[in-house]
């Protein structure tokens, strides 16, 4: 598996190296290798990037396989989607139509829609059926250049049903070319029919589910939806502290409709606070002064027709901004990370560097992954290769330009 492979020549290669993790970025800060550029792989990792002809000579000496490209191509690290709900069952097309025709969330719930519909469909699905759905969505993501996909549970809402979801994610991760990073979101909402308070539900998840997650290595990350209607910061805090004490990393669905979640995220040392559409200047300041990564989810903005995460303010204040798809059947059905990132860039006036970092190196940080998100020597050979002669074409075409080739751990997909 340590065979060498040279790919190129590329018009441009963007290794996404040398960028600060926090704060605003100018395109001039991007390290753009130009002209006739090659990428030399060694097995599953990047050996080096540089002048194609020099690497070609080297390849002859070391006996590398040469994949010579004909045409104009630009290579970037494979994209990382740090927030998805691609483990789910059932379409919410009816909800979408209802919402756009003016029905309220409560009216939709009364008509049998809302998140509870997805919970019911997901509970009714077998583990194998869930696996098929995850694999199908992961394949689509992979073909669009997304080589690492965070995947949450959260539509089971009992110990057994959450385990079914997380085992499905684990099973797909073992056989699919894309890497899935699982997160336990058993605290998505207080389940209907649960005999007990929200605190009692969280206590049950913490005492019964968390130990099994450890035993079966099903998830190393715990997420919670902090929102009126879901869990308050006061209810969430002991749950997250217990998770932290057991060695889990924390991420929070925060400030989607009301504030409180991001402040809690910083207090408990969460790796990321995701959503933030309702964050005010106060929350922006709190996040910017912390190590908690702010994750924008423009897919939810597009799905719900609400505000964007204040990405520009967050970056100007010095926060680290990741961008993820939130792909889910209810509020973000599109699941096109690049398109959504491009639209956020236009809406929030983000540089190409800020948008591309948000779906590569900064998204890797949101998942605490140091082996990807750049094309540094030794990083995973995950590549998104676009048919164009300048990287600016990629966001300019707002997600319509798809990769011509994708490599995952050195293998062409
Ligand atoms: Zn979400």
TrEMBL record:
The UniProt entry's GO biological process terms, in alphabetical order, are: L-histidine catabolic process to glutamate and formamide
Cite the annotated pathway: Amino-acid degradation
* Gene Ontology molecular function, alphabetical: imidazolonepropionase activity; metal ion binding
Q: Output a single Gene Ontology CC term carried by this record.
A: cytoplasm
Which positions fall inside the Amidohydrolase domain?
Answer: 125-393
Q: What class of enzyme is it?
A: hydrolase
Which Pfam families does the entry mention? Answer: Amidohydro_3
Q: Which InterPro entries did the record assign?
A: Amidohydro_3 (IPR013108), HutI (IPR005920), Metal-dep_hydrolase_composite (IPR011059), Metal_Hydrolase (IPR032466)
Enzyme Commission number, as recorded: 3.5.2.7
Q: Which UniProt keywords apply?
A: Cytoplasm, Histidine metabolism, Hydrolase, Iron, Metal-binding, Zinc
Official protein name in the record: Imidazolonepropionase
